[in-house]
């Protein structure tokens, strides 16, 4: 691995302790310009023009539809760092194209994407690439550092039941007052976080919030870990045709082996322990 694409040990330890990592200027302007244009072209194509900023839009399999966006998922500047965190064998679990803010008119309340004790032993990472500058006022991502680990994670599980309410309270507090770290970003920055980490969005100025989400997971080593891929909607087990047909070695390594494992699990006797290799 080239040193210029590697995380430092401090960054690895930071991610392990806090559950997230901001990589400033991971992608330069020469990369981000075409990415922003390609994402905008897809939204224009899908909606007949620029979507209303107040309309929350989340589209699965988004980057797979554009060669420019698809090139991000195995870009060495990102891939080499993910390999350090996830291990030499890891899988791509699909993408999202997000425009606006899902949830209430003023917030996307506290939650973990993959909540629960059973999820804590299986690392899945979401990579956020914001296409507009994000500040605390206009809806930058908030995270609760360390909430991806027991027992802190379990103490916050009631948040997941409340985050879909119209005006939830968290320990009796408005969500914006919960102690948190606000991750302000500029286009080209990347935010990596464990999908068991609790996070939210609150804003004062309505955001022109546009971002791409790339999802990855470590290789499932046993049936319990494989089951978490089945429990939640995951592009890993049904990758887009563009991924199946891609001839780039790193993409193939993140997509094709899990399809073989899926068939092996389907054929395995239910009463026999199963582990992948």
Commentary on this structure:
With 277 residues, the chain is an alpha+beta fold. It has one domain: Sandwich (Jelly Rolls). It has nine helices and ten strands. The strands form two sheets. The chain has a six-stranded antiparallel sheet. Strands 4-9-6-7 form a four-stranded antiparallel sheet. The model has no long low-confidence stretch (mean pLDDT 89).
Layout: helices, strands, pairs:
Elements: H1 9-18, E1 20-23, H2 29-47, E2 57-60, H3 67-70, H4 76-86, E3 90-99, E4 107-112, E5 124-130, E6 141-143, H5 152-155, H6 158-162, E7 181-183, E8 190-194, E9 198-202, E10 210-218, H7 223-231, H8 241-245, H9 249-267
Please, how many helices? Answer: 9
Radius of gyration: 19 Å
Instruction: Show unreliable segments.
Output: none
Please write the string of helix (H) and strand (E) elements.
HEHEHHEEEEHHEEEEHHH
N/C terminus separation: 23 Å
Broad shape? globular
- Give the number of DSSP strands: 10
The class by helix and strand makeup works out as alpha+beta
* Largest sheet: number of strands, sense, barrel closure: 6 strands, antiparallel
Characteristic key phrases:
277 residues; alpha+beta; Jelly Rolls; four-stranded antiparallel beta sheet; globular
Can I get a quick summary?
The chain has 277 residues and is of the alpha+beta class.
